[in-house]
Every structure is written in C-alpha cells, then in structure tokens.
Amino acid sequence: MHSDAHVALLTPQRPASADPRTLLRALFDVAVATVSPANCLPPHLPAPPKGRTVVIGAGKAAAAMARAVESRWRGELSGLVVTRYGHGAPCERIEVVEAAHPVPDEAGQRAAQRMVQMVRGLGPDDLVLCLISGGGSALLAAPAEGITLADKQAVNQALLRSGANIGEMNCVRKHLSALKGGRLALLCAPARVETLLISDIPGDDPTLIASGPTLPDATTCADALAVVAKYGIALPANVRAHLESGAGETPKPGDPRFAGHRSVTLATAQDALQAAAAHARALGFEAHVLSDCIEGEARDVAQVHAAIARQVARHGQPFGKPCVLLSGGETTVTVRGKGRGGRNAEFLLGLAVALDGLPGVHAIAADTDGIDGSEDNAGALLAPDTLVRASARGLSARAHLANNDGYGFFAALDDLVATGPTRTNVNDFRAILIA
Questions:
Q1: Crossing angle of helices 221-230/237-244, nearest 10°?
Q2: pLDDT tens for residues 118-162?
Q3: Which residues 6+ apart lie within 8 Å of 295 measured at CB?
Q4: What is the reported pTM?
Q5: Would the pLDDT of 391 be above 50?
Q6: Distance separating alpha carbons of residues 19 and 255, to the nearest angstrom
Q7: Coil, helix or strand at residue 363
C-alpha cells in the first residue's frame, strides 16, 4: 500500500531525473491506495435502519471493507465476511473468516452456511449490508443441492486452466451454486439488501463481481453449458445433469423480489488508472489510459502493448514521449507449461520478448490485490536491459514463456514486485514508461 516511504519518493520532479523503477512502483502504489476500502467505502454507507444491521460479504477486500464499515458505523452491527487466507483485517463486531482462493475449500463452505443462518428470520426493518469484491466467487462456496464441494473444486480447477475469461467462469459458477446469481439476496427477505462492490470485472458489470450473490442474473444454464463446451471441460455426470435439467437456473432481472434493494460500485480499475495517470502528470509525464477492460491471452495482450510502445518510441505516434501508457482489465493464461507465475508475469515475459530490449522502455504489471495468480508476488518490473541480464544468468525469456514460468524468470533477476495482500482488488494494473 501507499507507505510514508513512498510518499517521500513521489515529489513532482522533472521526467529526466525520475528513476523508472521508482516511478512505476509509485504509480502502482497510488493506484492501489485509491481503491482501498478505507478510502472508497465510507462515503457510500447507507443510513442505519430502524432494526438490525447484519453485515455479510466475500472477496479479497471483504475484511478491509468490514473494517471500514466498523470505523464509521454508529448503530448496532453484527455479521460475518469471508476473505482469502492472509487477507484478513482486525474487526471487533464483524467476524472475519479466511478461506481458500481460487479453488474453494471447506472453510469457505462453512462460512457460507453460517451466513445463511445469520440472514434467516430478519424483518422488513432490518438491513443486510453485503460487501462484495473480486475473489468472492471461490470464497463463498455453497454448492447447489446434489453437487459436492469436490465437484465444484474440480470444475473450478478446469475453468482456471482453460483460458476462459472471468465472465465465462462466473457464468458456470452461478449455476452450480446455492447462493450466487442473486440467490443470497432472496434468502435475506423481507430485509432490505444494500450491496457495496469493489469491481474486478472488465466493464464493471456488478452482476459478475463474485458471481453476483445479491443481484439478479441474466445468464442461463444453457449459457453455462455453452462455456463448458467451448473449452472442452469435462463435467461430472451429476453436474451436467444439474445444468441440463435447468435445476441450476438463477432469478432473472425484473424479479420483484429484488425491489427496494440497492447496489453501489465503490471502486473500479478506471478509478485506479485515473489516479495513476494524474500522479504521472504531476511528475511531468504525459499519461494515457489505453483501456480499463482489456481481456485476452496475456502474451497476446503483451504483443499489442509492445507494438504501441514501439510506435511511440520510434515515431512519436500516437503519443509523444516521454509518456506513460496505462491499462487494466483481466488477462488470462492458457496453461501449457509447468512453471510458476500469474498473468502479470506472463504479460511481462511476452512484452520482454516482443520489445527485444527496445531502449528507453520500462514497464510494470501487477495485480492490485497483491497476488499474481497464486504466487507471493503482485507482479514484476521490466527494463530495457532485462534480456541482457537474463542471458548473463543463462535464462531464456522465450523458454520461460513457453513454460508459463514468469515468476521464475523475474525472481532470478530480482525484479518481482512484492507487496503482500493489499486487501483490495480491481485486477490488473499495467504501466509502460517510454522515455
């Protein structure tokens, strides 16, 4: 997060005097701080109800969101949120449970069961405040009737390795769940439900964030089966039967049972990118946000970014230099190798190969949750001399890319970006500095 040490480094200065690594890391820190729950949540808290307030939630930011609620809430308060292992935060009135991500475990399943019990029996004067952020789909593990946790784990693992985008994965997850796709909100009736969201979804569709447990769902079981067919995912017989029978259908938009409920998106990738751009401009650089919702294979996205950077560096088009190019979204990795590394390390490996040491171009790619895939780094840094330094150590960027081993490559160069859990999540952050 944005530490005092970094604040000292962020004093506006002339572009020529800025150390590229320091600048890029500062932009990432500013982006993350902007979308932290402590900063973005308090202005959107609803008024306390006449009755009880029960807080529930799931996601990588859920514990920090709960803490932000506690710090500002003046009325009665209780509840439970579930977050990823290591992403907890100290709360006094709201219980925090840690569970597994990206593949669900029994801790997440038990937490989901307890949430259901907490919202049963509420009245029309009560409020359910639901705190949702990316990662909640795996953390809120409540298999539909006839489906086991092991079934969901197997399907989840297959989806993660398939190259499916987050919308496609969450479409399948919704139709295998007892809570996602709006079902959790229905269990809260007749209490009013207010949902506060931090978006990790390209395009920021609130129904996709953590598979939309409190929002109606326009997708169908047929859509889920189409995703499964597209990626050749083998389903257990009982799971396929659940989808084919329509037993997994979700409540749809226009359902009157959602009347009176409200949802607010607190923070998005665009918010983070705009903050980073403003900071770069304060330091004297032109800054350009290419997109906040880029999807696709990480290595393919890297090739496009490299082509734009090369055009800027060589021809001053479409932007003059020095400048910073910013982008967000959620890329994917179709796993074919056996290496370590998330999509941001994979992006940078692809960028390194495509740029081939182009002078004056530095880059950072990192996940705003502080965890790139399932590793202990947020991402990594790239410099014009990266390939030369790698070669001196006997490392081949192409070979590491073929093995999906971005982590191993950048770890050997001491170029990993490690922040620890940031307790927020608006997905990928990429910045390319062209000096």
A1: 140
A2: 999 999 999 999 999 999 999 999 999 999 999 999 999 999 888
A3: 165, 202, 329, 330, 331, 332
A4: 0.90
A5: yes
A6: 55
A7: strand
